[in-house]
Write a structure and sequence with these properties.
elongated, mainly alpha
């Protein structure tokens, strides 16, 4: 997998956390740089650690399914991307706008929830023999930067980008899954 592919996947994975960061920026009344940094660090660390966990869990099984690894990656990335798009398009009537996004418990739950897809991507990285430390660092850094910016965008622009960011992230993951499948089938 190329450096550019990992960057694109990292941006796709960061979109869930970016969308939540925008929402956090909307909710924080007296926003400070340290607030944005706290949120960005949580999301970045979780997004970086989850692919490692997925990779470790799956590396033991990769030798058994190397002949179908491209299909596994295609299905996993496609599923995650379609799920992200679906969740972005459905109505969110259970909006927890009364929650404090700086509360450690809430921030941890949000970080885990937005990084589950990164765990699954870590599984596909094992099948593709990606340098997981390198990929996890890229994912963590890109997520951190996107979330830091997202908090301030939320403060400035409100909810304008929330759903669009999730849809964009989902589309990126689906397209990366298709690209992996096409490459392994020899069409590129």
């Amino acid at each position: 997998m190329t450096f550019i592919s990992i960057i694109i996947i990292a941006f796709g994975l960061a979109m869930d956390a970016f969308a939540v960061s925008i929402t956090s920026g909307i909710l924080i009344k007296d926003l400070k740089v340290r607030h944005a940094l706290k949120i960005a660090l949580f999301f970045g660390v979780f997004q970086g650690v989850m692919p490692l966990i997925g990779w470790i869990l799956s590396i033991r099984f990769s030798k058994y399914i190397q002949s179908i690894d491209h299909w596994v990656s295609f299905l996993l990335l496609g599923y995650i991307g379609i799920k992200m798009i679906h969740e972005a398009l459905k109505n969110d009537e259970d909006d927890d706008t009364g929650k404090n996004p700086l509360d450690l418990k809430i921030l941890t739950i949000l970080s885990i929830a937005t990084s589950i897809d990164a765990l699954v991507v870590g599984v596909s990285f094992a099948f593709l023999e990606v340098n997981i430390i390198y990929a996890a660092l890229i994912i963590a850094i890109i997520t951190l930067v996107c979330c830091f910016i997202g908090v301030f965008m939320g403060k400035k622009f409100g909810e304008l980008f929330n759903k669009k960011a999730e849809i964009f992230g989902g589309v990126i993951l689906v397209l990366m899954g298709v690209k992996i499948l096409i490459e392994h089938l020899g069409y590129i």
